[in-house]
Every structure is written in structure tokens, then in C-alpha cells.
Write a structure and sequence with these properties.
217 residues; alpha+beta; 3 helices
């Protein structure tokens, strides 16, 4: 009987509601006075650091699980302008990364950041806890392999042959959380102001394999 090789791709996608939200925040100021822009960024950064320290106590229910802050960065350049030739401009900046356990608190904090001088919310992303990720990642890979096996058996069955796997190539698998933080009709209110509604969607885990099968007599 003629030899037969079948190579197929197997994929699997699993979805779960996000368990953590990650805010990426920039603090930035520009102007023609270096002391002024440095002071503005330092002041705003100190306020944010104080806020996130208060939200990240050692309690198991603390709204923030972790945060990081970069050191102050500065730069300068000469403005290319006919109205202000040789005018030197200055910029100071710092960045924060904040992981929230409490997603409603994330929305509340973000609402305040949007109106805070010199502060920009650059990105909001969604993820799972490490424990959930490890458990689902294993299950997702197994389902991708089973998908490949089923495809090969389908093809071989039509041809009246039996096949066994002889090579498995694992491709990248990972987690995809749609970055989305938006205001909408589902917004809720605190005592101070309307709070942006969260609509993060599910976190997706994706696995893919390529498997080569050969026919057995």
C-alpha cells in the first residue's frame, strides 16, 4: 500500500471573564521652564504614588495588587519656530503600571485620572490570575492537539487508512485581552461624579499546533 503522510493544524480558543485590569499611565509636562515642568510632573507623580499605596495594602481584598513607577525622565530641544527662534523647550515625564483586582475601583480611579492635570491613561488591558492562566493554558493546548487528531482521523477515514502521530510542533499560545475602557449608558455614579463603565470583554487563550501523521498498515 502506498505511504501516506497527513499534516494538519490544530487550534483551540478558550474564553474567560477578566480577573485583573492593568492601567498604563503617563505623567508628562512640556514648557519653556525646566523647573516648572519638573515640578508639575513630580507633584502629580507623588499624588499618584500616594493613591496607589493606599489602594495596595497587604489585605487579600485590596483593590490594587501591584504597581510600579519609573524614575523621572527629562529632555530638551530647540524649538524650530520663526516666532521664537532658538527657544529651548523642556519635557519631564514618568510612567505608572497598576494592576487592579477590583475592576469597579479601576473604573472609578480612571475617571479621576482623565481630568487630572498632566496625567494620561495610555492603555487599559485585561488579564487572568497566574493560577487561572496556568490551568487554562494546559487545557487549551490539549484541546488544540485533539483538534489536530480529529482532523487527521477524518481525512484518513475517508481514505480507509489508520494514522499515528509522528511529529508535533507547538506554536505560540497566549492570552489576548481586548484593551477597552469606555463611557456608556451602563455608567454608574459615586458621590463625586459619574464613573466610566467597563466593557472589557472576555480574555481569550489561544493555542495552535502542527502535527504530522503517517499511515499504519
Amino acid at each position: 500500500m502506498a505511504p501516506l503522510d497527513i499534516t494538519v493544524n490544530g487550534t483551540s480558543t478558550m474564553r474567560r471573564a477578566p480577573e485583573r485590569g492593568i492601567l498604563s499611565i503617563a505623567v508628562i509636562s512640556q514648557g519653556d521652564s525646566q523647573p516648572t515642568v519638573t515640578s508639575e510632573v513630580t507633584s502629580a507623580s507623588n499624588s499618584l504614588q500616594k493613591l496607589f499605596k493606599e489602594l495596595s495594602t497587604e489585605s487579600a481584598t485590596a483593590p490594587v495588587t501591584a504597581f510600579s513607577m519609573t524614575s523621572l525622565r527629562t529632555r530638551s530641544w530647540v524649538l524650530d519656530s520663526e516666532s521664537k527662534p532658538n527657544q529651548r523647550m523642556y519635557e519631564a515625564s514618568s510612567n505608572f503600571g497598576v494592576t487592579f483586582r477590583d475592576l469597579e475601583k479601576l473604573a472609578e480611579v480612571s475617571t479621576g485620572l482623565f481630568v487630572m492635570p498632566h496625567v494620561e491613561v495610555r492603555d487599559t488591558s485585561w488579564t487572568l490570575t497566574e493560577e487561572t492562566w496556568e490551568s487554562l493554558d494546559s487545557e487549551c493546548r490539549k484541546k488544540a492537539l485533539l483538534d489536530a487528531v480529529q482532523k487527521a482521523q477524518d481525512y484518513a477515514g475517508v481514505l480507509g487508512r489508520d494514522v499515528v502521530a509522528v511529529e508535533v510542533r507547538d506554536h505560540s499560545s497566549g492570552m489576548v485581552g481586548m484593551p477597552l475602557l469606555r463611557a456608556g449608558p451602563q455608567s454608574y455614579r459615586t458621590k463625586q461624579a459619574e464613573v466610566i463603565a467597563l466593557d472589557p470583554g472576555d480574555v481569550q487563550l489561544v493555542a495552535s499546533v502542527t502535527v504530522r501523521f503517517t499511515a499504519v498498515e
